[in-house]
Each structure stands twice: as C-alpha cells, then as structure tokens.
C-alpha cells in the first residue's frame, strides 16, 4: 500500500509538471494561468479514469462488494 502511495505521489505531480512544461513550449502565446488550468484538468481527468478503472476491477472481482465474499 505504501508503494502505491509513493508511486502516486510521484506520478501525478510529475504528470502535472510535464503537461505544464509541454504546454508552455508548444503554445508560447498562452499565459501561465492557461497552461496551469489545462494541466490541472488533464491530470484530474487521468486520475478520474484510473479511479473508475480500479473501481471496475473491484466490482468485477467480488461477488458481494460490501462483504467482499
């Protein structure tokens, strides 16, 4: 569990930093606020897709999600 937390603590800020950097280089006419806003939305979307995927895995692997039987 701690390894997952460590990877998430590196992955999401790294993705944010990379997206911000890439947007600043590819769209120099955009302001810093625009780049940060788009990067935040992209990282939130990736996090939502991964959370949905993990929820689907949990639901499909359990017969009864509440009691985990």
Polypeptide structure, described:
By secondary structure, the chain is mainly alpha-helical. The chain has one domain (2-61). It contains two helices and no strands. The protein has helices spanning 2-26, 32-61. Helix 1 (2-26) packs antiparallel against helix 2. The mean pLDDT is 92. Residues 1-17 form the signal peptide. Keywords: Signal. This is TLC domain containing 3A.
Q: Helicity level, as a percent range?
A: over 70%
Strand content: under 5%
Q: Report the structural category.
A: mainly alpha
Topology, number of strands: 0
Rg result: 17 Å
Number of helices: 2
Sheet with the most strands, sense and barrel status: none
Distance between the termini: 21 Å
Low-confidence runs (pLDDT<50, min 5 residues)?
Answer: none
Along the chain, the helix and strand elements come as HH
Mean of the pLDDT scores? Answer: 92
Number of domains: 1
Any idea what the shape is? elongated
Architecture blueprint of SSEs:
Blueprint lengths: L1 H25 L5 H30 L8
Helix pairs in contact: 1-2
């Amino acid at each position: 569990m701690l390894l997952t937390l460590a990877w998430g603590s590196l992955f999401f800020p790294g993705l944010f930093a990379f997206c911000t950097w890439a947007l600043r280089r590819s769209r120099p006419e955009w302001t810093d606020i625009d780049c940060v806003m788009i990067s935040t939305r992209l990282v939130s979307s990736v996090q939502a897709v991964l959370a949905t995927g993990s929820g689907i895995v949990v639901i499909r692997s359990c017969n009864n999600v509440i009691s985990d039987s």
